[in-house]
Structure formats: structure tokens, C-alpha cells
Structure prediction request, 394 residues.
Amino acid sequence: MSKIEIKDGIYWVGAVDWDVRNFHGFSYTTHRGTSYNAYLIVDDKVALVDTVYRPFAGEMLDRIGEIVDPSEIDYIVMNHVESDHSSSLPEMLRIAPGAKVFGTAKCKAGLEKHFTCKMDFQAVKTGDELRLGRRTLMFIEAAMLHWPDSMFTYVKEDGILLPNDAFGQHLASSGRFDDEVDQHVLMEEAAKYYANILLPLSPLVKKKIEEIVGMGIPISMIAPSHGIVWRRDPMKIVQSYMKWAAGAAEKRVIIAYDTMWGSTEKMARAILEGIRSEGVEVRMYRFPYSDSSDIIGEVLEAKGLLVGSSTINNGILPTLAPFLTDLRGLKPKGRKAAAFGSYGWMGGATEEIEAALKSAGMEIVMPALKLNWVPSSEELKRCEEFGREFAKKL
Ligand code: FEO
Prediction:
């Protein structure tokens, strides 16, 4: 292994997980893997900021071992309790039993519920500092970004922000920096990460960024706990976060649907034609071939959402349920939406979709389009008109 120094005396000592394909249970698909980033700062005192997911503890220790003896680590900063960053802490404390642990008070409470190992823990607040020698770490509490315990660590002399999950991406890559990976892939994964993890916390994201800007601290690099380090243009991801937090979106429509015998699919395709004829871009996804977290990533930057389902048992096809559950939890703001679908006798799917869209805080701009059995050519024209009308409302 070769050492990866992100700045003089500051090293990436994390691990790349090329194989993981889901996160947070199965609620977030990670088609491109991820990385668990930990950082080692070598000064008069040696500090480790965050650890890695437990199966990768050996890899982290090997990386640390190339730089210092791991038993000589003086401080371990825990920005976040979640297992992908904390579950190697007991192993680190077994190897470096004298290391003092820093984190928020909520972090302490969370660690005590996760692990039984003894630790010398010091709770810190925003503005508290830890002197390493030539360098100083300053702590910034970041409650609910994205857990109550979350915290950012700032290396004052270098202007490096270590914000844990914030500004991260689930992206396994050989490059460790933003200028070493494909830019389209990078921003796609950053947007998907924001949409699936931070979207409902957007007001807090905006407030925290404004707070940090207000502190007047220079930021030369942002090194999150997943994905790449932003060094070429760290403000690019900060500006993207401000845009996403404000709910800004493109004039684009996402159609997400499933069909039983093809009638709702015919409707979806005719609606797409109608939207397209108004010069508005449409992207269409069918469940279960597309997964919920990918589509949520698309909804982040699209003004319109149309959801369709055939009716079964007076409700939606079960394949739509994870997506509607995600929407209700993530609540994308300022989006226009409507429902459509075919039914045989009682109906019920479009009503269930509308209820979910309303509960997700979306504006239902048109009554649902419901068609009985197989759509006739006249009814398909109605579908096209439905698409045209929806496009005009964006
Ligand atoms: Fe909230 Fe990457 O863990």
C-alpha cells in the first residue's frame, strides 16, 4: 500500500469497499460501491479522525502502520456514531488503550449503547479546540446532519473541513480526489447521496452552511467520510448543497410506474409523448427494474413527478411501495405531481398514490387520470393531453 497524503502530515487511512451494493438495510442501492474515509493527522500529538466499518479495520490499521505505530495514537475524534464510521473504534482502543476520544455529548451516549469497551471520552461543543502541536482541530456540532450526534472537525491551519457524512458520495474509486474521477459520475452520486440522506434535513443544511460561512473560516479542502476529497473546488459541492437545500430543480418530469398487463404502461408512454411535445424533458422508470433510491436521486433535480400504477386489491402494485415510502419520508419540497393508472372494477391505486404524494408534501396539480381496462386510441389521446397539460404547469 502506498501512503495517501492529502496535505503535509495529513493522511487518508480509510478503505474502499468495491463490493457493497446496498446501504441502510436495502433502502439505498450503492451501484458504485463506497469508501469509508478516516484521516490521520501527525503532529506532536497524533490524531485519528473517524474509523472505518469493522470488516475493514485491518486495512485501516495497515495504512496507519505505514505512517506511525497505531498504538501511539493520542486522540480519536468520532464525528459520528453510525457503524460505518465507528465500528472499528473498539479495535482501535484495544491497540491504543491510552487514546482519548472526542465527540459530542450525544456521540458519547450513542457509543455507550453501541459498544461496551471502556473509553476516556471528552465531550466537545462548537468552537472547542484541540491543539496537536503545529496544528489545531476545531469542532463544529452538526446535529441532525444527519444524526443527533453528528459533528464536523476543522483543521484550522490548513483550512480542511472533515464533515463526516456531509458532502459525501457512495462511490468506490481508485482516485481519492475530485480531480481524479469522472465529474458526471461524481455529481450524480453526490446528488443521490443528498436526496436519499439529507433531503428532509434541507433547512438544517442551509442553516449549517450559513453558520460556517458566518464563522469566516477559510476552506481549502473538504474531506468527507465517503467518496472523494474535494480539493480542486471545494465550494462546488457547497453551492450544490445550497441549491438542493433551496429545492431548485430543472424543468423536467420523472415518470415512475408499474403495470400489470400493459395498460398502465401504454398510458405512461402516451403521457410521455404529450410532455415531450411541449419541449419538456422526461425520464421514465418502471418498477421493479429501476430502484427507489435511484429515482429519488432523479426527483431531487426535477420539477415534476408522475406516478402510475395498475390497481390490485383496491390499491397500488406492491412494487411501488418502497418508492412511495421513501417519498413520504424524504419530502422533496416544491414539486408538482399527479397520478395515473388503469383499473378493472373498483380502482384505488391512483387514490393511494395521490395520498402518498400529498403526504410527501407535493402539490397535486391535476386530478388523477384513471382509465378502465385497456385504453382505446381515444383514451390514449387523453393521456397525451394529460401529459401536455402537466408539462404546461411546470
Ligand atoms: Fe451516517 Fe456514513 O454514516
